[in-house]
Amino acid sequence: MTLTAAAIAAHLSALLGADAVIGTPEQMGNYLNEPRKRFHTGATAVALPSSVSQVQAIVRWANENGVGLIPQGGNTGLVGAQVPLRGDEVIVSLTRLDRIRAIDTSAGTMTAEAGVILENAHTAAEAENTIFPLWLASQGSARIGGLLSSNAGGVNVLAYGNARELTMGVEAVLADGRLYQGLNALKKDNTGYDLRDLLVGAEGTLGIITAATLKIFPKPEDYETTIVNIAGPEAALPLFELLRARIGGRLNAFEIIPHIGLELQLKHGFLDRDPTAGPSPWYALIEVSRMAGTAPGALQAAIEVAFEQGLIDNAVFAEALADRTRMWAFREQMSEVQSKEGASIKHDVSVPIAAVPQLIAQGIAAAERVCPGIRPVPFGHMGDGNIHFNFSQPAGADARTFMADYDETVHDAIYDIVLRLGGSVSAEHGIGQLKRELLVQVKDPVALDMMRAIKTALDPKGILNPGKMLRTCP
Question: Residue 373, SS3?
Answer without folding.
Answer: coil
